Amino acid sequence: MSVQLPSVKTIWFYPNGTIKAIIAFISITLFSLFSLSPMDSLALFCTGALIAGGLFWFVCILGPAEQKGKRAVDLSGGSISAEKVQDNYKQYWSFFRRPKEIETAEKVPDFVDTFYNLVTDIYEWGWGQSFHFSPSIPGKSHRDATRIHEEMAVDLIDVKPGDRILDVGCGVGGPMRAIASHSRAKVVGITINEYQVNRARLHNKKAGLEDLCEVVCGNFLEMPFQDNSFDGAYSIEATCHAPQLEDVYAEIFRVLKPGSLYVSYEWVTTEKYRADNPEHVDIIQGIERGDALPGLRNYKDIAEMARKVGFEIVKERDLAKPPAQPWWTRLKMGRIAYWRNHILVTILSALGIAPKGTVDVHEMLFVTADHLTRGGETGIFTPMHMILCRKPE
Ligand SMILES: C=C(CC[C@@H](C)[C@H]1CC[C@H]2C3=CC[C@H]4[C@H](C)[C@@H](O)CC[C@]4(C)[C@H]3CC[C@]12C)C(C)C
Ligand SMILES: C[S@@+](CC[C@H](N)C(=O)[O-])C[C@H]1O[C@@H](n2cnc3c(N)ncnc32)[C@H](O)[C@@H]1O
């Protein structure tokens, strides 16, 4: 008969293991206290209390990672097996080393898929279930500010309960759930990444929103949906991954019913961006490399692409412009917590709990957080250039 031994992970990280560890710690402490002189006992007790307090502050209080959803001990490489994470990370970088040839455009969806296998768990753990930014709102939490930004999208496309709407590039479905609850519309999300599909379905089930939210794995450049089959559509910080914006816009146009609306929050360079300024170029290239972007577009190109595929432009505005408060505050404030996360990821990876390569991926995100913050502070980049379009009747 074979005996199933518990893994290190089971003993030390699951509640049962944690209780055993606490009991062991208390027993050793009590034993030491009783076998030492009163002064030594007091010193030992104070040191122990200081270390425990420090650890508690470091792990739980210092900018806690989003606690619902993912834990550091569950970090994985998405659909990539643990031993291949490091190779896939190297493969991801090789994309940027090649010259931008025409054939590269065809490889973009695969490269984006690899990227999301590598980052999805870290995003969920350190940011939450909505993979986008939102302007900060004084007196409101980040979670509330995120929800308000998402609800604004569905309010703009004017949908009714029971309507069928499309979420283009839905991630693990944070926006989809907020939008379905707010509007009571049926939301169909599409993402290229199979791991995200599974995560999104799991979250939908847990939230009791399975009837309103459906998730499909597919490429938004060739969507598996019929012509004229949606009452509205939105994309939140997702179409920036398309090598040609007009290709994804044309697909959205095709599946929308005539007269219905589409809103997008686009990642773009602003009017302040200067291609002859080396600092600007460095920031934008840093954003492209750390966020799997085939090339950031300028805000001026967005409406042109939308018109080219047949849309009428109803509204266009950078939602990051004043009176909106900075969207990068949360990113900047989290810096000390990122160091804490980095130490955690390094330890977990060394223990073999997180896949090798997780440290590299985390470091890449650390660097991109800085480029994004600089993009926001200089005003040369926005992740929320909003465009509202209508498919003519
Ligand atoms: C729309 C896109 C993603 C936008 C954001 C959700 C993510 C962009 C950068 C990400 C992060 C940077 C730093 C990470 C940190 C080092 C780690 O400890 C915890 C997670 C981060 C905060 C992570 C979270 C998600 C981002 C903010 C793109 C890809 C088009
Ligand atoms: C930054 S995430 C945003 C996710 C979601 N909109 C949110 O705000 O949480 C970008 C999303 O676009 C999806 N995506 C990128 N390229 C895609 C493609 N060619 N086809 C389908 N989905 C794609 C990614 O898989 C990911 O889910």
TrEMBL record:
<dbReference type="Pfam" id="PF08498">
    <property type="entry name" value="Sterol_MT_C"/>
</dbReference>
<protein>
    <recommendedName>
        <fullName>Methyltransferase</fullName>
        <ecNumber>2.1.1.-</ecNumber>
    </recommendedName>
</protein>
<keyword id="KW-1207">Sterol metabolism</keyword>
<keyword id="KW-0753">Steroid metabolism</keyword>
<dbReference type="GO" id="GO:0030797">
    <property type="term" value="F:24-methylenesterol C-methyltransferase activity"/>
</dbReference>
<keyword id="KW-0443">Lipid metabolism</keyword>
<feature type="domain" description="SAM-dependent methyltransferase Erg6/SMT-type">
    <location>
        <begin position="115"/>
        <end position="392"/>
    </location>
</feature>
<feature type="transmembrane region" description="Helical">
    <location>
        <begin position="12"/>
        <end position="36"/>
    </location>
</feature>
<keyword id="KW-0756">Sterol biosynthesis</keyword>
<keyword id="KW-0812">Transmembrane</keyword>
<dbReference type="Pfam" id="PF08241">
    <property type="entry name" value="Methyltransf_11"/>
</dbReference>
<keyword id="KW-0752">Steroid biosynthesis</keyword>
<keyword id="KW-0444">Lipid biosynthesis</keyword>
<dbReference type="InterPro" id="IPR013216">
    <property type="entry name" value="Methyltransf_11"/>
</dbReference>
<dbReference type="GO" id="GO:0016126">
    <property type="term" value="P:sterol biosynthetic process"/>
</dbReference>
<keyword id="KW-0489">Methyltransferase</keyword>
<keyword id="KW-0808">Transferase</keyword>
<keyword id="KW-0949">S-adenosyl-L-methionine</keyword>
<dbReference type="InterPro" id="IPR030384">
    <property type="entry name" value="MeTrfase_SMT"/>
</dbReference>
<comment type="function">
    <text>Catalyzes the methyl transfer from S-adenosyl-methionine to the methylene group of 24-methylene lophenol to form 24-ethylidene lophenol.</text>
</comment>
<feature type="transmembrane region" description="Helical">
    <location>
        <begin position="42"/>
        <end position="62"/>
    </location>
</feature>
<dbReference type="InterPro" id="IPR013705">
    <property type="entry name" value="Sterol_MeTrfase_C"/>
</dbReference>
<comment type="similarity">
    <text>Belongs to the class I-like SAM-binding methyltransferase superfamily. Erg6/SMT family.</text>
</comment>
<comment type="pathway">
    <text>Steroid biosynthesis; sterol biosynthesis.</text>
</comment>
<dbReference type="GO" id="GO:0032259">
    <property type="term" value="P:methylation"/>
</dbReference>
<keyword id="KW-1133">Transmembrane helix</keyword>
<keyword id="KW-0472">Membrane</keyword>
